[in-house]
Amino acid sequence: MNTYKNQPVVGLFITCLADLYRPEVGFATIQLLEDAGCKVEVPSQQTCCGQPAFNTGDFKQSAAIARQTIEAFDGYQYVVAPSGSCISMLHHYPELFDEKDPWKKRAEDLKARAFEITSFLVDVLQHSLSPSTFNSSITYHDSCSGLRELGIKDQPRQLLTQVEGVEIKEMQESETCCGFGGTFCVKYPDISNRMVGNKTHNIVDAGATTLLGGDLGCLLNMAGKLQREGHDVDVRHVVEVLAGMTDQPALGETKSTVKAG
Amino acid sequence: MNITSPDFKENARIALKDVGLQKALGNVKTGFPHKRATAMERLPEFDQLRDEARDLKNHIIEHLDLYLEAFEAKVLENGGHVHWCRTSEEAQKTILKICQEKNAKTVTKGKSMVTEEINLNEYLEANGVTPVETDLGEYILQLRGEHPSHIIAPAIHLNLEDVSETFHSHHHKPKSMDPAVLMQEAREELRNKFVAADVGITGANFLVAETGSSIIVTNEGNGDLTQILPKTHIVVTSIEKVVPTLEDMTLFLRLLARSATGQEFTVYNTLSTGPRQEGDQDGPEDYHVVLVDNGRSEMIASELREMLRCIRCAACMNHCPVYGAVGGHSYGWVYPGPMGSVLTPQMIGIEKGALLPNASTFCGKCESVCPVRIPLPKLMRYWRRNEFEKHLTPKTSRWGLGIWGFFAKRPALYRQLSKLSNATLRALSRKQARISKLPLARGWTEHRDMPAPSGKTFMQLWADKQQGQNKPQSEHYS
Ligand code: SF4
C-alpha cells in the first residue's frame, strides 16, 4: 500500500452534504487526520456515493457510480469520510457486481480501506486527540448506518471525553432513527415528521446545550426540527468539536454561542 | 379482505392523527422492546442461538421437500390427513370441503395468520359455516368486524375503552372497565361455542417432521380447547413451518418466546400428533393438516429466500419506528411492519404493495432484533429494485434520479451543480442561516426548517486553498 514519507495516505471522501452544506466538516476532518499523522488528499473525481440510486433500486446507476468512486480512490491506503451512512454505502459496493466481474474484487478492496472518521481515529489509528476545549454539555445521536452497519457507538464518545469541558448527557433512545432516511423524509413526510418529533422530544429532555452526531443528513433533519419548534439546542457534526473548530455558528444559526477554548 | 396497501400514505396520515390509536401504539413501543431486552440479558447465549437458528432454517429451506414429505408420512402413519394447497383458493376450498363433510355449522378458531392470509373467515361465512375466533384479541376483532393489526397481538391498536364499549354492545351486560371482568365475560360467551363447535381450526407455529406433530404456542389456552373439543381438528399452516426434530423445535421455541413477548417460555405449548388414539382420553376423531404454499416455493428460488426463515415473532414490528408511528392497519393487508413489507408484495403483487418496502428509512433496527437474522432492509431493497426494473417507480422519482445520475457520473459538472445549489440555498436563506419555505422541498419545509449552507462548497474552498498554497493537487502517491 502507498504511503508518503511513512505517513498513511488518506483520500477524503467529502460526501455530498458536507460539500454542499457544511465545508467546515471537511476541514475539521482533514485537521483531525493530519493531527493523527496522515497525509490527506481530496480526489477530484469523486461525487456522490450512489446511495440515492441504490436505495431507489436503480442498481445499474449505482454500479456506474461505484466504479467511478473506486477509480477515484484507487491507490489510497485509506478512504475516510465524515459519515457512517456514505461509508456504509461504499461497503455495499461488492453487492453491485457479479462474482465474475473484475470490479467485484476492486469493490471488496475499497471496502476494506473505507472508514468513517471517528472509527478510523479510534479503531485503526488508535489516536489520542490534540488538546482542545469545548465548554458545553452535549448529547449524541447514533445515526443508524454507522451504528448498525459499522458498529460505531463508543468511538465518538471515547474521543469526546478527550475534549476539555465536554459533558455528555445521553438522551433516551439515542439509537432510534431520526426519520431522515434520505429520500424517505420527502416521500413520507408525515411519518418522518413524527419520527423527528419523537427525536427532538428526547433531545430536549436530555437538557444538553449541543446535539452532536456523525451524519449530516440526520443532523440537518434534527436541527431543522429543533429550530421549527423553537428549541435552543445547537447542532453540530462531531468532528467540529473534536477538531476544536467551533468558531463558526452551529447548523442553521447565524452566530456562534459556545466557543472553543 | 379489502386490500388498502396502495393507499398506505393516506392510511398513515389518518393513523397519525388518530388519538386513540396513537395512545395504544405508545404501549407497543414501551412494552415489547423492553421485555425482549430483559429476556435477552438473562440468556447470554441468545446471539449464539440466533446464529444456530439461522443456519438450521437455511438447512431446512434447502431440503424443504424432504422434510415436508417426512412430515406427511408421519401424519399419515398417525392416522391423519395432509392437504397440499398451492393457492389461497385451493386452501379455502379444501377446508370448506372438510367442514361440509362433517356437516359443520360452526368452527372454533385459534389464532392463525395463515387463515387471515387465505381470507378464510369471509369464505366460510359466505358458504354457511360460522367461524368463531377464540383468541381474546381475535374475538374482540371479530365482534368489531376488524382484522389484526399485529401478528401476535392482533388487537394492539385498541384501548381498554374500545374493548369495554364493544363487549357492552355485543354481550348486553353492564359496561365494565375492569380487564378481569371483561375477560370473564369473553370466557362465558366462548364456553358454549367451544362445546358446540363441529370443527376446530388452529394454525401451527412449527411442524415436526420427526413425529408428524404440529405445535401451537399461546398464553390463553384457547388453542387447546379449539383442537381438543371438536370432533375434527384442522391445522392450517404454511410450508416453511416444518422443522426436523422435536429438539430443533425447542431451539425455536426459546427464541420465539423471548423475541415476541420477552417470556422465557410461552404459557401453553400444545403439540398435536394425529387423531385420538386408542386409550387417549380426549382429542379429535379426525386430524387434517392443510399446507399452504401461496407463493412460498417461488420464494425459495428467489432473492427473497431468506424471508422463509421468519418464525412470526413480531420483534421487527415491535421495534420499527414506522410501525410504531402508523400501526399495522396502515399497511393495508395481513402482514404489517418490516416482515410485512417484504411478504406483502410477494403475495398481493408489487403493483399493489410497492409503497410498503419504500416506507422504511433502512434504519436496520428490524434486522438487528430478528431472531433468525433476516436481512429485512436488503429484502425491502430487493422490492425497490424489482419496482424500478418494472418501471413502476413513480415518474418524478425516476426523472429526479436520472438527472441526478447524469451529474453524479460527471464530476466536473457535479461540482458546478453543487456550487449552484449551494449559492441558491444561501441566497434563499437571506442571511438567516435557514430557510422555512422551499417550494421544491415542501415535504421537508412543511415540518421543519432547512439549515442553509454555512459558506461556499467544500470543493470550492478546497480549490481556493490549494491555489493559495500554490501547489497543484496531485492525485496519487506511489
Ligand atoms: S422477520 Fe424476524 S423479527 Fe420479524 S417476525 Fe419474522 S422472525 Fe420475527
Number of helix segments of chain B?
24
What is the annotated CATH architecture of one domain in chain B? 3-Layer(aba) Sandwich
Domain count of chain A? 2
**How far do the termini of chain B sit from each other?**
66 Å
Order of strands in the sheet with most strands of chain B: 1-10-7-4-2-3
**Inertia-based shape of chain A:** globular
Oligomer: heterodimer
User: What would you call the structural class of chain B?
Assistant: alpha/beta
Strand content of chain B: 5-15%
Radius of gyration of chain A (CA) equals: 18 Å
Can you write the helix and strand succession of chain A as a string?
EEHHEHHEHHEHEHHEHHEHEH
Classified in CATH, the superfamily of one domain in chain B is: NagB/RpiA/CoA transferase-like
Task: Tell me the layout of helices and strands.
The complex is a heterodimer of chains A (261) and B (478).
Chain A: E1 3-4, E2 7-12, H1 16-21, H2 23-35, E3 39-41, H3 51-56, H4 59-72, E4 78-81, H5 84-92, H6 102-113, E5 114-116, H7 117-124, E6 133-141, H8 144-150, H9 154-160, E7 164-168, H10 184-187, H11 189-206, E8 210-213, H12 216-228, E9 234-237, H13 238-242
Parallel strand pairs in A: 2-3, 2-4, 4-5, 6-7, 6-8, 8-9
Antiparallel strand pairs in A: 1-2
Chain B: H1 8-17, H2 19-41, H3 46-62, H4 64-77, E1 81-85, H5 88-101, E2 106-109, H6 113-117, H7 120-126, E3 130-133, H8 136-144, H9 160-171, H10 179-196, E4 199-202, E5 206-208, E6 213-218, H11 222-228, E7 232-238, E8 242-243, H12 246-260, E9 268-272, E10 286-292, H13 296-300, H14 315-318, H15 321-326, H16 337-348, H17 350-353, H18 355-358, H19 365-369, H20 376-389, H21 395-408, H22 411-428, E11 434-435, H23 442-445, E12 450-451, H24 458-468
Parallel strand pairs in B: 1-10, 2-3, 2-4, 4-7, 5-8, 7-10
Antiparallel strand pairs in B: 5-6, 6-9, 11-12
Helix pairs in contact in B: 3-12, 9-10, 16-20
The site of iron/sulfur cluster has 13 residues of chain B, from helix 14.
